[in-house]
Each structure stands twice: as structure tokens, then as C-alpha cells.
Amino acid sequence: MIFYVGHNDIDKLRWDTAIASSFNKRQYAFSWYLDQVSPNWNALVLDDYVAVMPIFVRKRFGVSSIYTPLFCPQLGIFSTIENNAFCVDDFINSIPSTFLFIDLTLNSYNFISKDFKISKLFLKYNQELSLNDEYENIRNKYKKSHIKNIEKFEAQNEITITDNNSFQDFYQFKIESLPELNIKLKKSEQLQLFNLFMTTNNKELLTIYLGYDKNNCPQGGVCFMKIEERVFIYTFCNKLGKKYGLIYFIVNQFIKENAGRNLILDFMGSSIEGVRYRNLGFGSDELEYSFVRINKLTNFLKIGKS
């Protein structure tokens, strides 16, 4: 049986055990991570935590809704009793009827049956690269343009890379770079990102590389967030960094230093075509996952009017 569980009633030890034991786990589904991006998250739990689904609630204009927080590209249902893609209809049907508007981002192993009624379904994409191979074998799958960018950076002397950097510096430079990408973060979302960096830094999960020009101005950087065997990437890049292929160089250096290890480089997807191209150009695999929207609000308003 599937139960809706409020935040204070979630057994986080059992939750984390379920995530760790699930065949389709995502490291950002652990309770400590979810606490950073949405402190009062709730859950759907099957039986004795054999399958779980985080639920994020907010109220707008008096309407209770479910949404997917930032910095968690794939969530959905995590199962300890499946070993392949599985239907999630029953979980979605178990969401309380009080939620009239539902936005769900599932993971690449979740699917909805064809007959299930939803308002909209969008396919999204994530790029992942296994580092469990020799460096030369991984590099042989790079696009030629990527190799040229790496060589371009190696030949220049305008930017110096440092690896003894604070998460505060990276966070500040990252936030300052967002307007150029037409990305806006609310103050609350910026605080979530800062808290996420602070918490993962305190857990010694961050490796940060920054590139500075001769005037000590930042020109780009990459933050590698390693949680167990998965490494998440956050980047920013300014004009000179783009000119010399700074991001390509740093990612390649990380791959070179970690090749042969049981790690997955998770680029966390992107709707920006140039970023997607960059991610795929390292020879990464692309996985589909679904964004689902269920809008009961229209029917609710119709009932109200009648």
C-alpha cells in the first residue's frame, strides 16, 4: 500500500536505506540533500519503504500544488524491488486529491502508461559519462572540436587555473554569470543553491577549479560535486574563458585524473543547446526522462462556477 507521509513522520534512516538500495538511485534523492533544496519535503512510501517518492508542496493563490525543486534534475520513484523501467501510475494516483496542480520530474527508469490521463508530458535529456575506462579510450570518443578547444587552452597564457578555491567565490561568480544566459533565480532559490554548496563543502564533497586572467578577474570555473559514485557538474564561463575553451580544459583534466575509477560524470542535462552539445562532445551517453504536468485546476474552477 502507498502512504502519503508528512515531513516530520518520514523515517529518514529507512528513506536513505531505500535510496541507497534502489536500482535507479540518484544521489540527490538522499534526505540530507532534499533538506537543502526543499526543507519541508513530504513523501509517498510503498509498504515498508520498498519504494519511495519525494513530494514538494507549495501554495500559490490559495491553491495547493506539487512541484520539482531546482538542482534535482531527476526524481520520481526509487524502487528496491524493481530492476528495470517500471510504471509509476499507482504512485501518481496516490497523490492526495487536495493537490490541484502537479508538476513532476521523473527519472529515466520511470514511465507512465499510455492510458493514464495527464495534461502534458515533456521529454528531457541528461548526459552522463562513465569514467570506468582508460583515459585514452575515453578521449578517443571526444569530438574533434573538443580536442581543439583543449589544445587551444593549453597553448594560451592568458588564464591561470587554481584549485584551492572557496565555494563562496564559485557561488558568487556563478550567480553573476546567470543573466548572460537569460537565467533568473529568485532570492530564495539563490539561498537554496548557497546552502547546497555550503553543506556539500562541509561534507568535503566539492572540488572547485577557477580560471583567472592576468588582472585576477574570474573567466570561468567548474565545481565538481561528488556524492558516492556520481559527480555533478556546475559551471560558469566569461568571455575570455569561452574564447580559450576553459571549461573543456577543466573537464578534460578531471576526466584524466579520475579515469579508471567507478565514477559517473553527471552533467545534469541542459535545455541550452550549446551546453548540451558540449556535454555530448565528451562522449557521454544521453538518457531521456519525463516531466509530467497534471492540471486539475480547470475542472475545479468549472465546479466552482456551477
Concise overview:
The chain is α+β, with helices and mostly antiparallel strands and 306 residues long. It is built from eleven helices and 16 strands.
What does this structure look like?
This protein is an alpha+beta fold and 306 residues long. The protein has 2 domains: 2-117; 127-287, Gcn5-related N-acetyltransferase (GNAT) (Aminopeptidase, 3-Layer(aba) Sandwich). The chain contains 11 helices and 16 strands. It has helices at residues 12-21, 31-37, 89-93, 135-139, 144-155, 167-177, 187-202, 239-244, 246-258, 273-280, 297-305, and strands at residues 2-5, 42-46, 51-55, 57-60, 63-66, 78-79, 86-87, 101-105, 110-111, 120-130, 160-162, 206-212, 218-227, 230-237, 264-266, 285-295. The strands form 3 sheets. The chain has a 10-stranded mixed sheet. Strands 1-2-3-6 form a 4-stranded antiparallel sheet, covered by helices on one side. Helix 5 crosses helix 9 (246-258). The longest helix is centred in the middle third of the chain and has 16 residues, at 187-202.
Radius of gyration: 21 Å
List the helices and strands in order. Answer: EHHEEEEEEHEEEHHEHHEEEHHEHEH
Number of domains: 2
What CATH first level of the largest domain would be assigned? Alpha Beta
Question: How many helical elements?
Answer: 11
What structural class do helix, strand and pairing data support? alpha+beta
User: What name is given to the CATH topology of the largest domain?
Assistant: Aminopeptidase
Instruction: Name the CATH architecture of the largest domain.
Output: 3-Layer(aba) Sandwich
Distance between the termini: 36 Å
List how many beta strands DSSP finds: 16
Molecular shape? globular
